C-alpha cells in the first residue's frame, strides 16, 4: 500500500470532543479537520469499536486521508462504547439511530461544516449507515456501506437459510468482550470506574436474545431496511467481497433502491477494499473521495457515469484456506438485474449434471457431522486461514453431481439456485449445497454455497415441520459469486444434510431422499464482453501514514482440526491472538486474544459444542484493567444450553510489586436454556 504523506489540505486532529444528545448524554468523537477557514462537508463513521485504542490503527489510515482531501472526518463511539456515556444493550436499536441523527445535526450546525454530511462504515458502520439513511436526517446527503446487509435475519452473522450460524456465537463473543471494557480515564476522568461497572452490569449477554428469535420476526424486521427500501432517499455506494458473508445484499440494494446507487464487489474478505485480502486491493480511499466530491461538493467526478455494478470475475485456482491474491479481472454491468445474463440449467442425474433431461431416480443421504469441518468461516476476516479447503475432504459425506469436462469457458455472475425434489424421514431437517470448480487433476475449489432449514422452505417468518416421507420442491439460493470455469474443468454440485460447524445441525439425524430428474442447478451465465477491457482502472491502494506502535509480544494465529480416535471427538480450534502492543501516541498497552472451539462426538447431533474465550487488557501508568470471557453453547434435541462467564480485573503493577495479586472487581455467570424453534 502506498503511504501518502502530503495532502491538498493540512490536517489537524482533535483527540476528543463530546457531542451532546437530546437526552443530555454525550458521545465521544475524534475529529480530523482540514486547516482552512472554508466550511467543508463532514463524513461520519459511527461504530462501537473504541476510537481511542482498538480502531486507532485503522482510523489513522482512513480519516486523515479524507480530511486531507477536504472533508471533516469524524469517528464517533456509540452510546455505551469507548468513551461515550451510557450502556450499549444490543445491535441497531432505535436509540442508536436517534443518537446518529443528533450527531449528524450537530455536525451540520458547526461553523467548520457547510451543512452537508456523509456517512461511511464497514460491518456495523455499514449497517447503520443504511439504517440511518432510512431515517432521512436532512443533512445526510450520501452514504458508503461496506460489508453490510439490509436484512438482519437473512444475511447476517446470526442465521442463514433458517439455520443457526456458529458465527452467532462468535459475534456474541466479540461484543461481550468489547462491551466489558472501560472508558479511558484520560478522556472521561474519574468517572471511568463508575461508567465501567455500569457497562459490566447492564450490557448483558446478547446471544441470549439472538437465540430467543430463531425466526424472522419483528425483532429482526425493526432495523431491516428491506422492509421499506423507499425510505432510503440519499445515494448509496454498496461495497463487499466474495470472501465475505454480506455480498448478497448488494444485488438486492441495486435492484430495489430507487436512489442513485453503485455496487462494488472484489475478491476481499471482511475488510475495506484498500486493505482487501485476498487481493488485489484497490485505491478505495480515492474512490470514496470521488464519491464524496460528487455528492457532497457537487463536483462532476464522472463517478456516476460508470456502470452500476463492478465485480471481480474470479479465475479458477487451486483450493487453499488462504490466498494473498485471487486471479481474475474486473467486469461490469450497466444495471442490475442485468439483461444479458441468462440462466443455464443443469438437471441432476445419478451423480451427474446434464443440460439434457434425466430420468427420475431417488438417492438417499445422511451426512456425517464431519462434513463442514473444512468449510472455513461464514465471513473471512483473513486473519487466519479461514477459507474453504479442497472439497474432496467434504465430498465423501455428500451426494456429488458433476458435469462432463467443459468444452468452453462458463462464466457466472449472480446468485445460483438449486431446486431440489426432496423428502425427509424426520419433521426437521436441513440441506447444504456447494458449487465447486473441479480441475483435471481432481482438485475441487468451492465457488459458493447455500444452506436451508427445510422447515423454512416457505420462508422464515412461519416455519412448518416436514411431513415425513412427503416429497417437497424447495429452492436453495446460493451466495452470489462471479467465477470463470475454464474448458476442461467440471462443475460440481455437492449436497449434504449437515454442514457443521458453519451451521448448527438439525435436532435429530434425518435421512433425506433426493429425486433426480426433477432437481435442477441453475447458473446465471454471463457472456464475456469486449467492453470489460475498457473499464477505468482503479488506482493503487493508498492510505495516510500508520499510527506509531511498538510490538511487545507477538501474536499467534492458527486453525487446527483434530480427531481423537479413542473418544470419537473431532474439534476445530481457531486461535486469534493479536499479541501485545503499545500505542505510542497515547502510551496505552493493548493485549487481545480470542480462541474458539467447535466439536462433536461421532455423529451425535446433540453432542455439538461451541466454546469461545477472550482476553482483553488495557494498561497505562496506574490504569491497568483486564477482562476475560468464556461462552459455551450446547444443545439437546429440544433446547439450546448457554453458559457464560465474565470476569473483570484491576491489575497490580508487577514492576513495583511482583508478588501482588490482581483484584477481581466484577464477575457474572449466566446459565440459560432456550427452546429450539424449528432450528
Notes on the structure:
With 679 residues, the chain is α+β, with helices and mostly antiparallel strands. It has a 10-stranded mixed beta sheet with strand order 2-3-5-4-6-7-10-11-12-13, sandwiched between helices. The chain is globular.
Brief descriptors of the model:
679 residues, Rossmann fold, Jelly Rolls, 3 domains, ten-stranded mixed β-sheet, eight-stranded antiparallel β-sheet, 35 strands, 37% strand
Describe the structure concisely.
With 679 residues, the protein is α+β, with helices and mostly antiparallel strands.
Report the mean per-residue pLDDT as an integer. 96
CATH topology of the largest domain: Rossmann fold
Structural class: alpha+beta
Broad CATH class of the largest domain: Alpha Beta
CATH superfamily of the largest domain: Alpha/Beta hydrolase fold, catalytic domain
Strand order of the largest sheet: 2-3-5-4-6-7-10-11-12-13
Stretches where pLDDT falls below 50 for ≥5 residues? Answer: none
Q: How far is it from the N-terminal to the C-terminal residue, by CA?
A: 44 Å
Indicate the topology.
Elements lengths: L1 E2 L7 E10 L5 E9 L5 E8 L8 H13 L3 E6 L16 H15 L4 E10 L1 H12 L4 E7 L12 E2 L2 E2 L2 H13 L5 H4 L3 H11 L3 H6 L6 H4 L14 E6 L6 H9 L4 E6 L17 H13 L12 E6 L13 E6 L8 E7 L4 E2 L7 E4 L26 H4 L3 E4 L7 E5 L2 E8 L5 E9 L5 E10 L18 E6 L3 E5 L4 E7 L15 E4 L4 E6 L16 E2 L5 E5 L2 E9 L4 E15 L4 E14 L7 E12 L2 E13 L3 E12 L12 E13 L4
Amino acid at each position: 500500500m502506498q503511504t501518502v504523506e502530503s495532502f491538498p489540505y493540512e490536517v489537524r486532529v482533535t483527540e476528543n470532543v463530546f457531542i451532546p444528545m437530546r437526552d443530555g448524554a454525550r458521545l465521544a468523537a475524534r475529529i480530523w479537520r482540514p486547516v482552512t477557514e472554508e466550511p467543508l462537508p463532514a463524513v461520519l463513521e459511527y461504530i462501537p469499536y473504541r476510537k481511542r485504542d482498538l480502531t486507532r490503527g485503522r482510523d489513522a489510515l482512513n480519516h486523515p486521508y479524507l480530511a486531507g482531501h477536504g472533508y471533516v472526518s469524524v469517528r464517533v463511539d456509540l452510546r455505551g462504547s469507548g468513551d461515550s456515556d451510557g450502556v450499549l444493550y444490543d445491535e441497531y436499536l432505535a436509540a442508536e439511530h436517534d443518537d446518529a441523527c443528533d450527531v449528524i445535526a450537530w455536525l451540520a450546525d458547526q461553523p467548520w461544516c457547510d451543512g452537508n454530511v456523509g456517512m461511511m462504515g464497514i460491518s456495523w458502520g455499514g449497517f447503520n449507515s443504511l439504517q440511518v439513511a432510512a431515517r432521512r436526517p436532512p443533512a445526510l446527503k450520501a452514504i458508503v456501506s461496506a460489508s453490510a446487509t439490509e436484512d438482519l435475519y437473512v444475511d447476517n452473522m446470526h442465521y442463514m437459510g433458517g439455520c443457526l450460524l456458529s458465527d452467532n456465537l462468535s459475534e456474541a463473543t466479540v461484543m461481550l468482550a468489547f462491551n466489558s471494557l472501560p472508558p479511558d480515564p484520560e478522556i472521561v476522568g474519574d468517572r471511568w470506574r463508575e461508567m465501567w461497572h455500569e457497562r459490566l452490569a447492564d450490557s448483558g449477554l446478547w446471544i441470549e436474545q439472538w437465540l430467543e428469535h430463531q425466526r424472522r420476526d419483528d425483532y429482526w424486521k425493526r432495523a431491516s431496511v428491506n422492509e421499506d427500501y423507499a425510505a432510503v432517499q440519499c445515494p448509496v455506494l454498496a461495497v463487499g467481497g466474495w470472501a465475505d458473508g454480506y455480498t448478497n445484499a448488494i444485488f438486492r440494494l441495486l435492484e430495489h433502491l430507487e436512489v442513485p446507487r453503485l455496487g462494488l464487489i472484489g475478491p476481499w474478505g471482511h475488510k475495506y477494499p484498500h486493505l482487501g485480502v485476498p487481493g488485489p486491493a484497490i485505491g478505495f480511499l480515492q474512490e470514496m473521495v470521488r464519491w464524496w466530491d460528487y455528492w457532497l461538493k457537487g463536483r462532476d467526478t464522472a463517478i456516476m457515469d460508470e456502470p452500476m455494478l463492478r465485480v471481480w470475475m474470479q479465475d479458477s485456482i487451486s483450493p487453499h484456506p488462504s490466498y494473498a491474491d485471487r486471479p481474475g479481472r474486473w467486469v461490469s454491468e450497466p444495471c442490475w438485474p442485468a439483461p444479458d445474463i441468462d440462466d443455464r440449467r443443469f438437471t441432476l442425474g445419478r451423480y451427474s449434471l446434464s443440460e439434457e433431461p434425466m430420468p427420475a431416480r431417488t438417492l438417499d443421504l445422511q451426512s456425517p457431522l464431519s462434513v463442514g469441518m473444512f468449510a472455513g468461516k461464514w465471513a473471512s476476516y483473513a486473519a487466519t486461514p479461514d477459507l474453504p479447503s479442497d472439497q474432496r475432504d467434504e465430498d465423501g459425506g455428500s451426494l456429488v453431481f458433476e458435469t462432463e469436462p467443459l468444452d468452453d469457458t462458463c462464466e457466472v455472475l449472480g446468485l445460483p439456485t438449486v431446486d431440489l425434489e426432496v423428502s425427509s424421514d424426520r419433521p426437521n431437517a436441513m440441506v447444504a449445497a456447494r458449487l465447486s470448480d473441479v480441475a483435471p487433476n481432481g482438485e475441487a475449489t468451492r465457488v459458493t454455497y447455500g444452506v436451508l432449514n427445510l422447515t423454512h422452505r416457505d420462508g422464515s417468518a412461519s416455519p412448518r415441520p416436514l411431513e415425513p416421507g412427503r416429497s417437497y420442491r424447495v429452492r436453495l439460493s446460493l451466495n452470489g459469486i462471479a467465477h470463470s470455469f475454464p474448458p476442461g474443468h467440471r462443475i460440481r454440485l455437492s449436497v449434504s444434510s449437515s454442514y457443521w460447524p458453519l451451521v448448527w445441525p438439525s435436532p435429530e439425524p434425518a435421512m433425506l431422499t433426493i429425486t433426480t430428474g426433477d432437481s435442477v442447478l441453475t447458473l446465471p451465465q454471463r457472456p464475456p464482453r469486449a467492453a470489460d477491457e475498457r473499464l477505468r482502472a482503479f488506482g493503487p491502494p493508498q492510505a495516510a501514514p500508520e499510527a506509531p506502535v511498538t510490538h511487545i509480544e507477538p501474536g499467534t494465529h492458527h486453525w487446527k482440526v483434530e480427531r481423537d480416535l479413542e473418544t470419537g471427538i473431532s474439534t476445530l480450534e481457531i486461535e486469534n491472538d493479536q499479541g501485545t502492543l503499545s500505542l505510542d501516541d497515547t502510551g496505552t498497552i493493548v493485549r487481545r486474544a480470542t480462541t474458539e472451539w467447535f466439536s462433536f462426538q461421532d455423529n451425535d447431533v446433540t453432542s455439538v459444542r461451541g466454546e469461545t474465550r477472550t482476553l482483553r487488557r488495557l494498561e497505562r501508568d496506574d490504569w491497568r484493567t483486564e477482562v476475560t470471557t468464556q461462552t459455551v453453547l450446547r444443545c439437546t434435541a429440544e433446547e439450546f444450553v448457554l453458559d457464560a462467564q465474565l470476569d473483570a480485573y484491576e491489575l497490580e503493577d508487577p514492576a513495583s510489586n511482583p508478588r501482588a495479586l490482581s483484584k477481581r472487581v466484577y464477575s457474572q455467570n449466566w446459565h440459560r436454556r432456550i427452546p429450539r424453534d424449528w432450528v
